[in-house]
Automatic annotation (TrEMBL):
Superkingdom in the source lineage: Eukaryota
A GO cellular component entry from the record: cytosol
UniProt protein name: Probable quinone oxidoreductase
Alphabetized SUPFAM superfamilies for the sequence: GroES-like, NAD(P)-binding Rossmann-fold domains
Ranges where the Enoyl reductase (ER) domain occurs: 70-385
Length: 387
């Protein structure tokens, strides 16, 4: 099932407080603000949330625990996990929707290290159900989203400094579906590739986006196309290619058909592309160096096919190539960076300029299936978990 989550302008205008007309993510005197309106996840239907009545916090909760790294069998469903205690500055969030990201598979396999046992999961959206007495910015009932750790559970304790209030009109499924991958696309385009928003539509540079129908890829394609960049998308099936085209890639190449390098050279009249966004990694890195134009940039940002082995830097000199290996979390270190980028993303979502295709919402208990589908290249867009 593919659920298209698109906030329409009419949905957005139905809100009492227009989020575009105010800095909706600034945290300020939230204890005095009221818990107002959110739109129902079903497109075109606005339903006011009732004032929440908070149930007592339980002592234990359900969630997914990794005791030892491994395959999907390492993701253990447990029903007796102690509810995390709040430290100074923390809020406790009841997760409504949890985003699945490729990075979750790296923590599961042990490619990325974390202390064990581990509750993985880097993003979710939900409701604040408790706050440490030191927290003045959030109160029970606030609709929020976050990028942090330990999201694969019913409840997650998060430092308030990493929590963002959801603007009216932004449903929690859309927030959980867009935060990590949308912010990755936004920061990679602006910070890593240095592509601004004021390019002439016909003058834009060439960009190649690998896995253009995937989570990050589909966001990259839309944001690049909106900036006037000439986008070539690669994808692993005819259906995925069609989706990438609909999202804004004027040229698409099926990556399983062979001779990607030849096709890209042909499309760009032999010059190659100015920038390559590559989340595939090991399988595509060598061909990136062939497809990038002289003085071009390769933004290598992921390991879906495995991490890129150590690189011989002398290879870059052949075309004066700029090579980067950025991570989202190092672009969002300060509160200002987090708020500025998230505000921009929320505006893109609420105005409908960027949409998110949700491939499927899996019960949290079935997260193993979600990981298998993602690693098996069976998905497009976003995978969500429902606790
Ligand atoms: N650096 C950062 O801060 C950052 C942040 C977010 C994500 N990422 C990275 O971005 C990449 C995409 O993440 P995502 O969550 O959006 O996943 P995704 O793109 O939805 O899924 C991965 C896609 O990669 C393609 N792929 C090509 N070869 C593959 C292989 N051998 N194994 C698996 N997949 C392969 C597949 O698309 P096709 O079938 O169309 O080829 C697959 O659907 C990941 O590498 C992730 O680690 C990095």
């Amino acid at each position: 099932m593919s659920l298209r989550v698109v906030p329409t302008i009419s949905r957005f205008r139905a809100c009492r407080n227009n989020p575009i007309s105010r800095p909706h993510l600034k945290i300020a005197s939230a204890r005095t603000s009221s818990y107002t309106v959110a739109l129902h996840p079903t497109p075109h239907r606005a339903a006011p949330h009732p004032t929440p009545t908070m149930a007592p916090i339980p002592k234990t909760m359900s969630g997914i625990v990794i005791d030892e790294p491994g395959g999907v069998e390492a993701l253990k469903w447990k029903t007796d996990i102690p509810v995390p205690e709040l430290k100074e500055g923390d809020v406790l969030i009841k997760n409504e929707f949890i985003g699945v990201n490729y990075i979750d598979t790296y923590f599961r396999t042990g490619l990325y290290k974390a202390p064990l046992p581990l509750i993985t999961g880097r993003e979710a959206a939900g409701t604040v159900v408790a706050a440490h007495p030191s927290v003045t910015d959030f109160k029970e009932g606030d609709r929020v989203t976050y990028l942090d750790h330990h999201a694969y559970a019913q409840l997650t304790a998060v430092a308030a400094s990493k929590v963002l209030r959801l603007p009216d009109g932004l449903a929690s499924d859309l927030a959980a579906a867009s935060m990590l991958q949308g912010l990755t696309a936004l920061t990679l385009i602006r910070e890593a590739a240095g592509i601004g928003s004021n390019l002439g539509v016909s003058e834009g540079p060439w960009a190649l986006v690998h896995a253009a129908a995937g989570g990050v890829g589909s966001q990259l394609v839309q944001m690049l196309a909106a900036r006037g960049v000439k986008v070539i998308g690669t994808a692993g099936s005819a259906d995925k290619c069609e989706l990438a085209r609909k999202l804004g890639a004027k040229w698409v190449v099926n990556s399983r058909d062979g001779d990607l390098v030849g096709r890209v050279k042909e499309i760009t009249s032999g010059n190659g592309v100015d920038v390559i966004f590559d989340g595939v990694g090991k399988a595509t890195f060598d061909s990136d160096l062939e497809m990038v134009a002289r003085k071009g940039t390769v933004v290598m940002f992921g390991n879906a096919s495995g991490p890129v082995p150590p690189v011989d830097l002398l290879k870059l000199g052949a075309k004066n190539i700029k090579l980067m290996r950025p991570t989202l979390f190092n672009y969002l270190v300060t509160r200002e960076e987090l708020e500025t980028n998230t505000n921009e993303l929320f505006d893109l979502l609420l105005s409908g300029k960027v949409t998110v295709d949700v491939h499927k919402v899996y019960p949290l208990k079935e997260v193993g299936q979600a990981h298998s589908d993602l690693e098996g290249r069976k998905t497009t867009g976003k995978l969500l978990l429902k606790p």
